[in-house]
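User: DUF2271 domain-containing protein, Bowmanella pacifica:
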Amino acid sequence: MKLSALVLATTLASAVTHAAQLEITLNQPALDVQPYHRPYIAVWVEDSERNAVATIALWKQLEEGDKWLKDLRQYWRKIGRNAGSEVDAVTGATRRPGDHLLQWDGTDSQGKPLPAGEYLLNIEASREEGGRDYHRVAFKLGQQGQMNLPAKVELGPIQISIK
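Assistant: Predicted structure for DUF2271 domain-containing protein:
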């Protein structure tokens, strides 16, 4: 009986340890331009050696397939052109302007927990007949903190909470 209680406690502690590690409030501004096409947006994590470890979100026009995905230049070079089914779970349609909450649980693309340490968060947006914005910011997984990234044209202000 004591052993099963210990296993349950260890399992619960493990689940709590790997709850959402990164919360990102990404603002997509409303632009007064014609024609307006919603931007493609990619959010991903790299390790300290700039190897991609996880895609958090990929928003694109689903009916277009990957036709315009290469306009997300950094994402395309790092992950997009070789992406397999592991990005299907985080791929969705483009979003309307406004604030969008993203959460990442600190796991790699295979669902394995990443060790504490230094990582790079990448956020890229590209809009047909529009601009291209890109942020790369270092953070430490396992160390709490807050960061704010300034607004650009295609991306509004971004708030990041590390847990």
